[in-house]
Amino acid sequence: MQDARGNDVDLSIYKRKVLLIVNVASQCGLTNSNYKELTQLYEKYKDKEL
């Protein structure tokens, strides 16, 4: 898998962790609301060491 900059990402570093992968189209009308919801999810779970 690659990150937003095209760098390879080794997903094995996330073994036994919860990982949310989001594929968005930047010109889609739903993108901004999706980012808002993703930010809320992050804030809710960021300190839970998932």
From TrEMBL:
Q: Which GO terms describe its biological process?
A: response to oxidative stress
Instruction: State the UniProt keywords alphabetically.
Output: Oxidoreductase, Peroxidase
Q: One of this protein's Pfam families, by short name?
A: GSHPx
Example of a GO MF term:
peroxidase activity
User: What Gene3D superfamilies does UniProt report for this protein, alphabetically?
Assistant: Glutaredoxin
PANTHER family referenced in this protein's UniProt entry, alphabetically: GLUTATHIONE PEROXIDASE
The similarity comment for this entry is:
Belongs to the glutathione peroxidase family.
Specify the protein name. Answer: Glutathione peroxidase
